[in-house]
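Our collaborator T.R. sent over the components below with a one-line note: 'Predict the complex.' Nothing else. No constraints on interfaces, no templates requested, no preferences about which chain binds where. So this is a plain run: every listed entity goes in together, and whatever single assembly comes back becomes the starting point for the next discussion.
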Amino acid sequence: MVTLADVARRANVSKMTVSRVINHPEQVTDELKKLVFAAMHELDYRPNVAAKALAKNRTQIVKFFILEEISTVEPYYMNLLLGISLALSRHQYSLQLVANNSFDLGVCDGYIITGMRKSDYEWISRIEKPVILFGENLYGYDFVDTNNKKGGMLSTRYALSLGYDKVVFVGIDLKEAFEYSRERGYIQVMQESLKEPEIVRVENHSHKSQEMLQKNWEKYPKNTAFVCASDRIAVGIERAIQEKGANIPDDYGIIGYDGIFLDQVVSPRLTTIRQDVAKLGEICGEMLLNKIEQKGKKQGFKLLDPMLVKRETTRRKGGSEKS
Amino acid sequence: MVTLADVARRANVSKMTVSRVINHPEQVTDELKKLVFAAMHELDYRPNVAAKALAKNRTQIVKFFILEEISTVEPYYMNLLLGISLALSRHQYSLQLVANNSFDLGVCDGYIITGMRKSDYEWISRIEKPVILFGENLYGYDFVDTNNKKGGMLSTRYALSLGYDKVVFVGIDLKEAFEYSRERGYIQVMQESLKEPEIVRVENHSHKSQEMLQKNWEKYPKNTAFVCASDRIAVGIERAIQEKGANIPDDYGIIGYDGIFLDQVVSPRLTTIRQDVAKLGEICGEMLLNKIEQKGKKQGFKLLDPMLVKRETTRRKGGSEKS
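Returned assembly:
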């Protein structure tokens, strides 16, 4: 049987170093990792993850539940997964992905859950192992999310600063915390600017927001900006404006929300609020592993600040009408 | 210590049944699984995946490498991951996802690798554990893919059947097997129809194909159909045609390739060749687990047939010009 000492000898490093590469790869340079892994492969050495798991009465597995219909959200979750995987691999954890309405709790050390709707919380409350939710919630569960209110504030403030007369919020027709927070950000900035908030909500599909605007076109005169709760909604708004032959960004401004994939596929490209979803995933993973290590101790929540990305669906600063 | 017998007693089933739920969940009804998992959770029973792994000298972990830049392909890989996860979870395997140019082989029982370019094969050839590639290759590695040639044939044949005079293939500017196969399918059908193949290649970005068509607009008279090697390319072609104010699908037809997400976000929605990517992922997972079980025995390849999805960027059958 090949031992850790054999690997250390082959790689010409100390046993301590080999152990660190295995147990705390995040503390080690890539070069050193390469060297040690090469020696491990040459010798076919298998560090005893399984033995360790057994000793600790752990599985070293985390399950990630996506409760939302995957087809509507794909690009988003891929980035989240990457972040989660990164955090887990640092601690020799691996992942099981559960989607498409399977509620199979299976065997693992803890859960990351996302895409919850109100009706899911009853089920979640009965889970006995550590759980971290991705997405803000009002029920006291530990969670990670972007600062949705701040996102709403950022985009609204930007639209106003560009001189658009009317700034409308196009929200997602869901009674969920993240949506309320984005709206709250919008409302707060509008009120601070002594403007009246105007909110319309649609299903989170580009065809729905497109339809909404087609039907209500007269309500929105030139010099209106649409602050949207998702890039999907923003894409539909963009299409409806283009159909009418109106100019983006001079006649109408659009700001999306998410900043993953979709914003860059459309033309003109969307000004949007970007969430660093991979980073959020990483934080989810770290928080869950801490919670497991601390035997289920409450972790609270962590909000990451979103970022305004200025592109082609909003005027340049100063207001192009005057320039 | 809670035993399997305790779980059986609590769930009021035989020990055999509990064992089957744990080791062969795919052979068991969802109801039975629910019952047994509930008992396991109540008793806090942890089946000895770790012990089993240890006994077999295995990790029960599979690593999935995405070698391609993630930002360009996100929606696609999410579905693949779902399929892989499904196959792994059936056999109590879990997943580690490796992306963004990390080549950290780490510790696991085998690898699924995708997004390979020619320069990656040297590295892949040195991996000593079982490997399955997602994506056809010419180097003799076991792989899973859609039947790319058939996909090219399907779309070309459909474009011709709709009465478009000129059918052009807009390919991806990569010297890779999947691209060559799609082109081969196009060429074969064109030759069978005694038409001259006409191929143009661009980078796989909508803005690139859009630019290409803008620059070469006079080359493509009305009644041309563009058979594209990806939906990204098709989206750019659609935009360029719309800019010129030409009619889709009467003046120009467009057929994409992939059928994931992007095809439905644009307007008009793309006629496309759909790959069942989740199913492909499942097959990758199954093939790799077989290979691990069979101590690295060669598995060959498996091609899944793609499907033509008829939408709004192609005429209705019979050719609308004549109707």
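Summary for T.R.: The CA atoms of residues 124 and 233 of chain A lie 29 Å apart.
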